[in-house]
Amino acid sequence: MTIFRTQESASNDNDIKSVEVRAEMEPFTVEDQQQDGNGNIVVSPTWKHWFRRLVQWRHRDPSTSQFIRQLIGHAQLGGFTIFKFSQLAASTNNFSYQNKIGEGSFGPVYKGVLANGVHVAIKKRRVFPESIQSDVQFENELQIIPKLQHANVIKLLGCCTEGNERILVYEYMPKRLKAGVFLSWPLRCRIIEGIAQGAAYLHHHSRLGSLVHGDLKPGNILLDCDMNPRISDFGLVEVLESEEDEKEIDAISGTPGYIDPLLVEIQRISTKSDVYGFGATSLVIMTAHDPLMEFDTGRSLVGHSNGADRRRAMELIDASLRNDPQINEILRCMHIALLCVQPDWADRPTMSEMPEYHLA
């Protein structure tokens, strides 16, 4: 499967349209609140040290509304809005098919336009069948995203939890990596660097601890009008005490081709699991090959790429880039990506080391 290529020239880089958004959340009452001009409840920044309850929440009854009320009450960033269902229905033409821009395990995603003209992406939980997993994903995102502040991480604007509704409202990203669309090397490099910066923030600089995204892949990378990436979909996030920490997991979740094979083998997760996903994503961006594509060696993209010399690396790179004047930079970037997908955690770099490679 070709991911990025087309016959169009690089001048069409900025013509990419369409969106893929992932999100999940839920509504709640707040401890400190005020009304905005539209009659919505705006959560005041009152966050303290509740986040350590993450482990407890994984074992709680997901229907416990008190827990959700606490999450909303502690949503720390100003401007987090509790929307009325009627407002979100009006913004999406009653969640019409024409407004639908994606679908995930949590449910459909719609493009909406609020009464003030702001474009948003609205992620709505599938009504039937309801699942504990979707509730956990909703609360996961609700706990974490409002407290993340980085240019390469998606922003959660608000939620709705009227009745049984579980709806998350995100900033709208107008572009995404899309099959059949050509990207020049400078744009691909910008996307890779932005992902690296966002992942480094999650691992090393978040005030919530060391966050492991758990599902880094092109489908979870959204792009703004200037092709700057945003990491989205935090439904599988894990919180570690430190960046050197690792954690046993109850169930293996992720996307084939991007999930860390060592995680699958030992059922433990660390920041190095995200490093693998970043490396696999970078390889896909540079080669335009599906990660599960089987080469004549009988191996997938990662297996076939490992140990590649310059000649084989040139063969792997997207044909549209092979004569690029920056080919040495492209090959260096591929080398870094291959370091990230080494079988053992100890042999992979950390995301904080990417600046040493002049990648982030």
Automatic annotation (TrEMBL):
Enzyme class: transferase
Catalytic reaction list: L-seryl-[protein] + ATP = O-phospho-L-seryl-[protein] + ADP + H(+); L-threonyl-[protein] + ATP = O-phospho-L-threonyl-[protein] + ADP + H(+)
UniProt GO MF annotations: ATP binding; protein serine/threonine kinase activity
Alphabetically ordered keywords of this record: ATP-binding, Kinase, Nucleotide-binding, Serine/threonine-protein kinase, Transferase
UniProt xrefs under Pfam families: Pkinase
Domain Protein kinase per the UniProt entry, residue ranges: 95-360
Transmembrane segments: none
Gene3D superfamilies membership: Phosphorylase Kinase, domain 1, Transferase(Phosphotransferase) domain 1
PANTHER family found in the cross-reference section: PROMASTIGOTE SURFACE ANTIGEN PROTEIN PSA (PTHR27006), PROTEIN KINASE DOMAIN-CONTAINING PROTEIN (PTHR27006:SF601)
Name used for this protein in its record: non-specific serine/threonine protein kinase
UniProt organism field: Panicum virgatum
Taxonomic lineage of the native organism: Eukaryota, Viridiplantae, Streptophyta, Embryophyta, Tracheophyta
